[in-house]
Amino acid sequence: MKHMQAVLFDLDGTLIDSEHFYYSNWKPILQKNFGLKIDFEDWLTFFAGHTLVRNVHFLREKWGIETTDEFMWKETRAAYARADMRTIGLMPHAKEILEDLQQAGKRIALVTSSYQTTVDTVLGHHGLLGFFEFFITRERVEQPKPDPEPYALAIKSMALPADEIVAIEDTSTGLKAAQGAGLSCIAVSRQQVERERLSAAECMVDNLAAVREILL
C-alpha cells in the first residue's frame, strides 16, 4: 500500500486511547439510572465504535432499558466535562506516524463519529490538529458510520480516486463504512473481540508502528 496518496484516520481507539474513558463515564450512568452493570469487555463487545443514538437503541433492544437520546446525551456530556477529555492519551506511535506520513508527502484527514468539539479538545491538547487537511465529524453527515457517507464525503473532499486512499480503523463499524465507500482499510487493534470482527480488512495489525511499515 505504499502507493497510497492519502490516509484517512479514525479517531477513537485508533489515534486516541479513548475507549476506557468512555467506558468509565458510561458505566456509572448505566448503573445509577438503570441498574445495569457492565465491564470493559462488555463495552468493547456491545458499545465501542458506535454512536450514542445506536447505543441508546441497543440498550432498549438488548436489556429493555427505556431512555432517550436527549437524556443520555446530557448525562454523558456532563460526565465527560467533569472527567476532562484532555486526560485522554494518544495511542502508541500516533504522533510519529502522522509526522512520518506528512514528511513523506501523504495527505492526511480525519473521519470520525465524534463531534468537532471532541476533536478540537483532544487533538488540540496534544498539538496534532495541524497534521490534518480536514475533519469529517458527526455534525457534517446525515448518516454516521457504519454508513459509508462519512468516507464518501472524505473521498469527495480529497478529489482523488478511491484506490489511492486508505482508511485506518479499529472497529468493524468503521471498517464497514470505509469498505462501503470503496476504500481499502487497514485494521489496527489489540482487542481480540474486535480483531475477530475485523477479518474482512485488507490488512490487520496490532499498532500504528506496523501501519507505518505498510504505508511507507
Total E-strand runs? 6
User: Can you give the mean pLDDT?
Assistant: 96
Succession of helices and strands: EHHHHHEHEHEHEHEH
Distance between the termini: 8 Å
In DSSP terms, counting alpha (H) and pi (I) runs of 4 or more, how many helices? 10
Largest pleated sheet:
6 strands, parallel
Instruction: Point out poorly predicted stretches.
Output: none
For the CA atoms, what is the radius of gyration?
Answer: 17 Å
Given helix and strand content, the structural type is: alpha/beta
How much β-strand is present in the residues?
5-15%
Helical fraction: 40-55%
Strand order in space, largest sheet: 3-2-1-4-5-6
Shape: globular
Keywords, please?
six-stranded parallel β-sheet, 10 helices, 216 residues
Describe the overall structure.
The N and C termini lie close together (8 Å). This protein has a 6-stranded parallel sheet, sandwiched between helices. It has helices at residues 19-34, 40-47, 52-63, 69-83, 94-103, 116-125, 149-158, 172-180, 192-195, 208-215; strands at residues 6-9, 107-111, 135-136, 165-169, 184-188, 203-205. It is globular and about 50 Å long. Helix 5 (94-103) runs parallel beside helix 10 (208-215). It contains 10 helices and 6 strands. The protein is an alpha/beta fold and 216 residues long. The longest helix has 16 residues, at 19-34.
Topology:
Elements: E1 6-9, H1 19-34, H2 40-47, H3 52-63, H4 69-83, H5 94-103, E2 107-111, H6 116-125, E3 135-136, H7 149-158, E4 165-169, H8 172-180, E5 184-188, H9 192-195, E6 203-205, H10 208-215
Helix pairs in contact: 1-4, 5-10
